[in-house]
Amino acid sequence: MNDEPLPPGLYIVATPIGNLGDLSPRAIATLRRVDRILAEDKRVSAKLLAHAGATAPMSTYHDHSDEALRDRILAELGTRAVALISDAGTPLISDPGYKLVRAVRSAGHAVHTVPGPCAAIAALTLAGLPTDRFLFLGFLSSRAKARSESIAEVAGVRASLVLYESGPRLGETLAALAERLGERDAAVTREISKLHEECVTGTLPELVARYAEAPPRGEIVIVIGPPGERVSASNEELDRALDEALSRLSPSRAAAEVAETLNVPKKRAYARALER
Ligand code: SAM
Predict the structure, then answer these.
(1) How many domains does the chain divide into?
(2) How far is the C-alpha of 194 from the C-alpha of 119, rounded, in Å?
(3) Which domain, by its residues, includes 242?
(4) Tens digits of residue pLDDT in 100-126
(5) Domain co-membership, 140 together with 194
């Protein structure tokens, strides 16, 4: 592997969210070739850097790091390559970095990204809910009023919602979501890419009941389907309802009636009605 120093600039490097095997060859090469590595927590990142064979000195960086530190980093970037990593996943995504990227860019230095694992995106791939439009909400407030206001603010958004959460807080967050969003389809994804990876699906009230007794351990991403469309209506359910409606009505009327009853898009019901 080429271990030559990299051209000066800031390198945003995504790291695994639980499985070291997900550290990409390009991430390894970048971490080996930079002159300094900025990390959230040096102890957390030491293991990963040893695994990558990276030996550059590490410094701690947070977005609330003082201006003096940011100025030192900017001065260094004129001649040296500096990587930014977070404890896990993609820097800047519910993690520090955006203020640094903005400052580096406005100082005229290069910014490169080495993309990789991100819990929000990984959760969307597991949930089986619509992914064409999604809204990432990060962590909701732990204060009940602020949390409920945030949920109300996005209740009408026609997109899947993606939220970060921890095991102990899952129950109360699900309850608040169910109270405001009702029967929407959702998924609780947990420990993605680790030994106990799981994805539990159901409506929000079903998930509230599922986790009422025993809060799960580990790291969690909640995905909630868009409003007004129960994506869980299976083709079998749809066909049964259509067969019955088609015995009484024209295809377009049957499709309209079934779309209304099962809360599925009219287009889907009509296409299926024409096939029956
Ligand atoms: N920057 C990270 C990323 O790209 O996903 C997220 C950092 S944020 C501080 C940490 C949160 O991400 C956790 O509380 C959890 O909600 C989510 N998370 C991280 N790793 C996860 C995993 N392996 N499985 C499920 N959720 C995870």
Answers:
(1) 3
(2) 12
(3) 235-275
(4) 999 999 999 999 999 999 999 999 999
(5) yes
